[in-house]
Response regulator receiver protein (Hylemonella gracilis ATCC 19624), 147 residues
Amino acid sequence: MVRLGTMTVMKILVVDDSEHIRLRLSWQVGAIPGLEQVWVALTGIQAQKLLTRMKPALLVLEPQLSDGDPVHLIPLFKSTHADLKVAVLTDDATGHSRQRCLQAGADWFFDKSTEFTQLLDLIHQLSDASLLTQHSNATVPHGGSHE
């Protein structure tokens, strides 16, 4: 998370090769207070580069990308970014897919067609928690700092 003045900004990286999903998530998540930085990637390679550069608090990941299956990258992402949370959002919501993603280290698993709203609810909760943390911890009075 980034602290700007007295406002904490939670960063989210959305990795999905569906333009519709990327736009929908960016638009809806971007309207949530405290979530002003929503980045998008179309491929696992782009995700790796952006993850290193932007250090998001939440990664929303589609496990079926045009350049391959990024599920094997979840342990790497989490080992190099200890505070990273991973939410999988997919059309392949079979029990096998769910188990595979959670075993790889995903924190949550959502079906695109039936649980999209639950993902948005989770993001609201994470944003509220970051705002609560911001108000309970000392904040920088002006300027900015990175956590």
Remarks:
- Strands lie at 2-4, 7-9, 11-15, 37-41, 58-61, 85-90, 108-111, 144-146.
- The CA atoms of residues 34 and 128 lie 8 Å apart.
- DSSP finds five helices and eight strands in the chain.
